[in-house]
What we know:
Blueprint: H1 9-33, H2 37-40, E1 45-51, E2 56-61, H3 69-81, E3 91-94, H4 97-100, E4 106-115, E5 118-128, E6 153-157, E7 160-161, H5 163-171, H6 176-204, H7 206-229, E8 234-242, E9 253-262, E10 265-269, H8 285-300, E11 315-318, H9 338-351, E12 369-375, E13 382-388, H10 419-425, E14 428-435, E15 451-457, E16 461-466, E17 487-491, E18 499-500, E19 505-511, E20 516-520, H11 535-544, H12 549-556, H13 569-581, H14 613-620
Parallel strand pairs: 10-11
Antiparallel strand pairs: 1-2, 1-5, 3-4, 3-6, 4-5, 6-7, 8-9, 9-10, 12-13, 12-16, 14-15, 15-20, 16-19, 17-18, 17-20
Helix pairs in contact: 1-6, 1-7, 6-7, 8-9
Amino acid sequence: MTAQHKVDPVMTEIVRNGLVAVTEEMKINLMRTAYNMIIYEALDFTVGVFDAEGNTVSIGLGLPMFIRGMSDTVKTKLAHFGASNLDPGDILLTNDAYITGSHLNHMTFTVPIFHEKELVGFSCCMAHWPDVGGTLMEGTTDIFSEGIQMPIVKIYRKGEPNEELISIIKTNVRLPERAMGDFRAQIAAVKTGERRFSDMLRKYGRDAVLGSIQAIMDQSEAVARKRVSDIPDGIYEAESFMDDDGINVGQRVPMKVRVEVKGDRMKVDLSDVSKQVQGFYNSGITAGRSCCQVAFKCLTSPLDLPINDGSFRALDIVLPPGRVVSAVKPAAMRMWMTYPMTIVDTIFKALAPALPDQVIAGHHADLVVGRINGRRPKDDSFYIYLGGLIGGGWGAKHDSDGRNAVIAMNDGDTHNGPSEQVEAKYPLLVERYALRQDSGGAGQFRGGLGTEQVVQARHPIRFSSQMDRVRCKPWGLNGGLSGSGNSVALHRFSKTDETHFPNGKALNQTLQSGDAYILRSGGGGGYGSPLDRDLKSLQHDIRAGYISKTSAEKLYGAVFKGDTLELDIAATEARRKSMREQGLPHDEPVTEIIIPFPTSAQPPKPDPQYRSEEHTSELQSHSFISYAVFCLK
């Protein structure tokens, strides 16, 4: 975008705040008109305004990982049709996973914006549809089993809906009335963006607005370059791994990143990230680019608005095709969001030696979701529910503890589903939603705590969970210990013990009335040696139930006065000295596993009004904090 108009700094700030307001109004309209909880409660969407070339002008984040995907999708649509073949009233649609970089559930609508017959920009909205056809519960190995694939099309032409294409969508989804509700909500959002951006152009003039946008991008670039130039030049490397791809059980998926800083430029090289996998964890190249941009934005200008492409001019990305974050057709993409989060974490890990005061330890890096479907007992109507999104622990940093029960990196603004809404809309009972004691990595500054959610089926359901980072636990930094990993389990009504899934993949499980699924998110990694934790903070954690007495003794060197929770200061200091001399504490080594998959089918059971008193008592006396119940908003 270029403009010969002299830029007024006052006008630039008016336009800056106007752009943020445009995307905020797009978000609000989408939330208020959408039909599915995943949009209006969880906020699994992203909206944005883009210039005439498809460059990002302002994004209203929902999903940080769409920081690149939206722009790339707009640019691909523009290249597909050509600017000369776009008309006022056109609305472009695709859910092509290899264009958006994500899964087929992300329907992406785009409206070209015209001013006095000139194409001046685009308004765009991506939102998650709970169902786009395809198999519901099984692990997928190619894109064809994951649902309808909508190539780039004009779903509206010159203001008129393409009813034939709309009927194809309605025919290929299980709940067409809800899908069409979200369809209309997204159209309302992109039309809002078009209308408000056009209002700005009419009010302030084309040259003033476009010139201000160019100035905003230039300012964002200057800030980013200055922050990069403050990082010591050098090559920084780190590696991690994912547990497996859901198909090749127990086979690690390596993640290795290389970051080069030279002057005011940064290059992130993902060439050594694993090649695309057989299972359902791949994502497209735009997701790989987003990994780099999210990390770069966090390190250079995390609070600067609007988020725009100027912020990334100082960033170079090396990403060959065919990697797990640059997968090519027909790679399966259903759980596209999982691996990119760990890549962002690994980029932070690589830069930790260069930026010890800015980088946090590892976080739980998984959405920890459960996919549920069944029929309502009242009217036998079919439903689909994406449960979980329960939040987990984030890593500690050099001067503070990690955050408890916060959503993972991929989803940023995404909220959990309120328990009251879940119970009102589905035959489910949320028995427990609490912080997990001892899940935060031990350290001078403790990692944030993960959460546990226990949900009872009040009617037969089918359940799947496809999580990772069970074995690759959130790492600590500078002597801090790892947090707990993620996990999933089932509790059958008539059984005493839980059924565990050691790799986090519980596929196609049938739950009868009274059975429960249990989602547990990991904690964040700690920072600094646990033996250096301030005793006042340690005492608070113990009394609050964040840390058990056993962990306080084993990891923090605590000594208590008798059977109380009060620390013996002198004895604690002496014990800490002895532990330092022995090289304690330290992380336990990661063990390899051989996983027997539990059976999915269970015989029908009586329909109890509530779970057994014995199991309820067991939950209440469980080592996790039972009184810290969350409805995270």
